[in-house]
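Continuing the batch. This is chain 6 of the set; chains 1 through 5 are on the previous pages. Same settings as before, nothing changed between runs. Recording input and output for traceability.
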Amino acid sequence: MDIIVIREESSEDIPAIYRINQAAFGRPQEALLVDRLRKEKAIIHSLVAEEKGELIGHVLFSPIMVQSESGVVVVACALGPVAVLPDRQKEGIGSMLIEAGINLCRRAGYPAMFVLGHPSYYPRFGFRPASHFDTSCAYAVPEEAFMALELQEAALNSVSGVVHYHSEFNDV
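Output for chain 6:
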């Protein structure tokens, strides 16, 4: 097996990142979301998986806000989209991207991370239903599909409220 390198995106990677997201999701919405978040400078980390000079995967981490009823706002991060070329899925590339991003966000001091995704996939990284932390998604989504991960110990103990994604997510 060749070595897969996980690194931050560069400007030369942008067309390939678009193609990866469009191919992985079978539609352009997630690829357009990444482009819009990049344009809005609403990206914490945009990581690519590269093998032999070819990009085969991508993951994005963007800032989100948890707003309590009293108005207190906590800035956290959102995981997603995560995309791997269809012919390279089920090889652990997505997991490599996610783990690298979790570590970078943790080191950057973000308290927590949220994801809207498959409830059978994300628990392997430590995600639990966000409702466990008394948080909910601003979007109408299945409760089991909206999950949270504390990046700092007990970071969500005193946080409750609604998680608001960047407005660019509204079109996905």
